[in-house]
Specification:
The chain is α+β, with helices and mostly antiparallel strands and 118 residues long. It is 27% helix and 30% strand. The chain has helices at 34-50, 81-95; strands at 15-16, 23-31, 54-59, 72-78, 104-112, 116-117. Residues 23-114 form the DUF1330 domain.
């Protein structure tokens, strides 16, 4: 691409390609019962920490520029894509499946990140 647009794209100098790419949970949230939802947030945050994840985005409001997204967005980073996948099952065991039933609705995807920067 840099041949087509000279100077437009410069490869970052700190890219480390010998480590696994990070894995991410990308979660859209629609809150059904705000009181119960906010009471359960501490349990969810402790579980993410226990699983080795790190919340990188927890947006109380999303500005949608095109298409449609749920009103809240959560992105959780894991050391690798494999760890992000494993953590889904472990989270269900740790906090109990159905804990958020009637509290919130979720759309969830697991995504592989780009190469690590240093």
């Amino acid at each position: 691409m840099s041949d087509v647009f000279p100077g437009w794209y410069a490869k970052p100098s700190g890219v480390v390609r010998d480590r696994p790419k990070r894995g991410y949970w990308v979660i859209g949230v629609r809150i059904v019962d705000p009181v119960r939802y906010f009471n359960l947030l501490e349990i969810a945050e402790e579980t993410i920490d226990y699983l080795g994840g790190r919340i990188v985005i927890r947006s109380p409001a999303v500005t949608v520029l095109s298409g449609s997204l749920p009103p809240r967005l959560l992105v959780v980073e894991f050391p690798s894509l494999d760890r992000a996948r494993e953590a889904v099952d472990e989270a269900a065991l740790k906090i109990g499946e159905g804990l958020f039933d009637g509290v919130a609705e979720f759309d969830m995807a697991i995504a592989e990140g780009y190469h690590d920067f240093g």
